[in-house]
């Protein structure tokens, strides 16, 4: 199957998951995760109107952003090191992976230099996996309150990377808990915090994530095929 056929297939599954949950498919943004994939594959999708692409590495995001259509919305979904922040603050439409006050302070500082306001999500380690980045659910509210005080930065919601599993139902509880956490934080009415975005669900479990309230799903393998990390 071609990349375009794969995308349409995933898009149809997104629509069906929304129907099951009684949601409007317009509420869900499908991010095509193009990490390690050539620009030619991204270009194949542009005629379909696809504009949201996700990258894990700063270098790859900036290289692609500089070479491809300015209409593309680039999502920084990988772990972000503080020394790389300056390269993405004016290129990423949304940074999904903010997991510390120090990182947020660096984003705020670099955004100020470039006179932009950066939209971010707080990355929550919903399943408490030692191998994953992210804050604990219990730390999320206090971190949101601290980051909200910084200039040039807006907290738009939460993100999580659920455990890898053969059975997507196993992750339903984590998606449900993240949704509850976002509602709880939204009810605090913190200035500069909206909680309108819930970035959760990947190739193996995005349908369950949508049923549990995801507004953004990050699908790579399901669209572009398996990755070759040897290159």
TrEMBL record:
Superkingdom as given in the UniProt entry: Bacteria
Function: Pyridoxal 5'-phosphate (PLP)-binding protein, which is involved in PLP homeostasis.
Alphabetically ordered keywords of this record: Pyridoxal phosphate
Domain named Alanine racemase N-terminal: residues: 27-227
Protein name, per record: Pyridoxal phosphate homeostasis protein
UniProt family annotation: Belongs to the pyridoxal phosphate-binding protein YggS/PROSC family.
Classification via Pfam families: Ala_racemase_N (PF01168)
